[in-house]
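Give me structure tokens for this 321-residue protein.
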Amino acid sequence: MITGAIAVMTSGGDSPGMNAAARAVVRTALYEGVRVFGIYNGYKGMLADEIVELNSRSVSDLIQRGGTFLGTARCKEFKTEEGRRKGLENLQKHGIEGLVIIGGDGSLTGGSLLSKMGGIPIVGLPGTIDNDVWGTDYTIGCDTAANTAVDAINKLRDTASAHRRIMIVEVMGHTSGWLAMTAGIAGGAEYIIVPEVKYDLDEICAEIVESYKKGRRYSIIVVAEGACSGVGLKNVVQEKTGIDTRVSILGHIQRGGSPTVEDRMKASMLGERAALALISGVSDVVFGFDEGKVVSINLFDSVNNRKPLDPELVRLASVLV
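Here you go.
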């Protein structure tokens, strides 16, 4: 049971809803009579002792903002045992008895390494637009990112139709195709290319040519960056089809923006649960969602397993796309 202080940090790529989660951690802990510290700039800030006590006003006017007020940064030093020891000493210096880490696989892996050293309980929250953390159906920010991508597809469809073009939309996802698959299905794309599913580019191009002969005015291809380069794909498609082809790389716009209602609500629910669990003595868990309910996942299972692309999404795409 923690009666003194806990800390919260964000790490890795930012995602919409991280502020809502951190806000919930802070206000829940304060409601329970426990002090809260914010670690600024991720693990780098932990090692640099950028650790500041927070109050309720510290997290005011944040729930509607994207990004993370705590900041995030890469830290090679934390990958060493000496670096992690330094971070742990800084936490203990402030009397911090437990830590909530909000981030993706890499961030949660850092938490698992810190936990193995002993000395401080760790609770993780999955924060990544890729929705690729094992054991949870949902990660903080994925809904906002998918909506951003769909909005872009809707706009690009208009100009593609006006010029009878093929429009290639590259979205984020180095190893996970969830964002591309979800945005592609919801955006009505004609083709979706993801790292997890094999594709035949010659067949795709032949189908596009045939559809244009029958009167189609445009085609939308959504591709995850980890499957292939949008620019490279554009060059091949245009050469093989002879049809004017353009590419739009959405890039970091997918990380930003005001979080959706779903991301605000679910992030808030996860933040509250994380704070309560940590205060009650729980450690080495990640909180996520399973069929709409908050569930706990073993931290080490989460970081040592790879989440596959939902086969139902792949099946649905094969029927609708």
